[in-house]
Design a protein that fits this description.
Layout lengths: L8 H37 L7 H14 L6 H20 L3 E4 L6 H10 L5 E4 L2 H9 L5 E5 L26 E6 L14 E5 L9 E10 L4 H10 L4 E6 L6 E9 L7 H10 L4 E9 L23
Helix pairs in contact: 1-3, 2-3
Length: about 300
């Protein structure tokens, strides 16, 4: 049986072009890393936040908007997320801590997908201990369970109450994971939020989180009505069980709201006496892109579970 030739002139010419492109890409990556280091130094000199999720989100959206050809959009996002994670480590030595039970590593996978393979990551089973690690400077980011939009029964599930505890060094919600919306899976089972000392800035397409403390007599329906009266679109409301004179709530809303917004004072006034409303961060709305490459109608099998 005759073997197919390994070489051909056309194939060799194409490979030479690819080798040339690889060299150019590598040179560009090295140049980009040097520029990022210069940016990091300027940020430190001027006391500017090193990590800026809003700018990163705008960058990914811009790349997806101009993308064309056969390279999957998911590949574009993963390449740039890996690049951002790697050069961020060069700037500051960032660390990630993931709050997750050992029996379920979905949050770990979401964090690795977003932060890349270069940033050091550790795991803890307690959201409280993850937040404490960020507060004490042992971690830069905490990956925490996504609020369920219901009345929660346990303290650990209400980790968001801790965001208002230390006004001298406040924490903010800054990112939602997964960082991309798959049109084939619009409401994934596993979602998480990233909390950091980094401030929450506008990416021009955002969701915000409002912490609300009000009298227990104020119903959840009333909170929703007050939001709408102030032209704020509520998306989800998570509440502490009604066990005392006052009650805590976490509201996810559409749009970017700063803690010094006039709407914050208007909401507190609308909820009645002793009401406190604070913005505790938010996240850039993730871009939409297909996360698998498959033929129409083809099903992707789930990974087998270990024995």
């Amino acid at each position: 049986m005759s073997q197919k030739p390994y070489h051909s002139k056309n194939l060799d010419d194409i490979r030479k072009k690819i080798d040339s492109l690889d060299t150019k890409i590598h040179e560009t990556l090295m140049e980009r890393a040097e520029l990022v280091l210069q940016i990091g130094e300027e940020k430190r000199k001027n006391n500017i936040e090193i990590v800026q999720p809003a700018r990163e989100a705008r960058m990914i959206r811009r790349l997806l908007a101009r993308h064309r050809g056969k390279l999957p959009e998911m590949a574009v996002v993963r390449i740039w997320r890996e690049l951002v994670g790697a050069v961020s480590l060069l700037q500051t030595g960032l660390k990630v801590i993931v709050a997750e039970e050992e029996s379920n590593l979905a949050y770990w996978d979401l964090a690795k997908d977003y932060f890349g393979s270069c940033l050091p990551m550790t795991r803890t089973e307690s959201p409280f201990s993850a937040i404490k690690a960020v507060q004490e400077g042992r971690a830069t980011f905490a990956v925490l369970p996504y609020p369920q939009g219901i009345t929660l029964e346990t303290d650990e599930e209400r980790w968001w109450e801790l965001l208002t505890k230390n006004e001298d060094s406040p924490l903010s919600i800054i990112v939602r994971l997964p960082h991309g919306e798959d049109p084939e899976e619009k409401n994934p089972d596993d979602k998480a939020l990233v909390v950091s000392k980094t401030g929450f800035d506008s990416s021009d397409d955002d969701h915000s989180y409002l912490f609300v403390e009000c009298l227990s007599s104020v119903s959840r329906a009333r909170i929703i009505d007050v939001m709408k009266e102030n032209d704020i679109e509520p998306l989800a409301l998570t509440s502490k069980p009604d066990t005392g004179e006052t009650r805590h709530h976490l509201l996810e809303v559409e749009g970017y709201i700063r803690d010094d917004s006039e709407k914050i004072d208007a909401i507190a006034e609308g909820l009645g006496e002793n009401s406190i409303v604070r913005c505790v961060g938010g996240y850039p709305v993730p871009p939409t892109y297909v996360k698998t490459v498959q033929s129409p109608g083809e099903k992707i099998p789930k990974a087998p579970k270990a024995d």
